Q: What sequence folds into this?
């Protein structure tokens, strides 16, 4: 039986390592497609490079960052909306990768829990 693919969604870079690093590494080592999406921080910030290195070590692919600003750290995505102010609609969900349809879904989501339940349902409809 093939190992299910895994999509993990987190609020910030480093949440993936702190909350689910072992799960991500274990699935990747077993041959599963593994992907991580973070809601905050822009791709041109130092945290993006840190996330890329963490995902390389975990075997979890390239970073996928939605690029919203962290509510308490505006420089995390200069000029971008704070994620806590973003509407929870298809626009936010559309920021997830096109291949976000996975069999397993993991998260440690402490800010916008409704997105976690909406994202897999939406990706099932659009993928």
A:
């Amino acid at each position: 039986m093939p190992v299910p693919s895994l999509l993990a969604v987190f609020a910030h870079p480093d949440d993936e390592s702190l909350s689910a690093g072992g799960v991500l590494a274990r699935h990747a080592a077993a041959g599963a497609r593994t992907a991580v999406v973070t809601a905050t921080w822009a791709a041109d910030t130092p945290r993006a490079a840190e996330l890329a290195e963490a995902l390389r070590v975990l075997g979890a692919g390239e970073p996928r960052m939605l690029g919203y600003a962290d509510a308490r750290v505006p420089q995390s995505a200069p000029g971008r909306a704070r994620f806590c102010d973003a509407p929870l609609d298809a626009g936010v969900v559309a920021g997830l990768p096109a291949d976000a349809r996975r069999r397993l879904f993991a998260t440690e989501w402490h800010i916008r829990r409704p997105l976690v339940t909406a994202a897999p349902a939406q990706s099932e409809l659009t993928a």
The first strand starts at residue 6 and ends at 10.
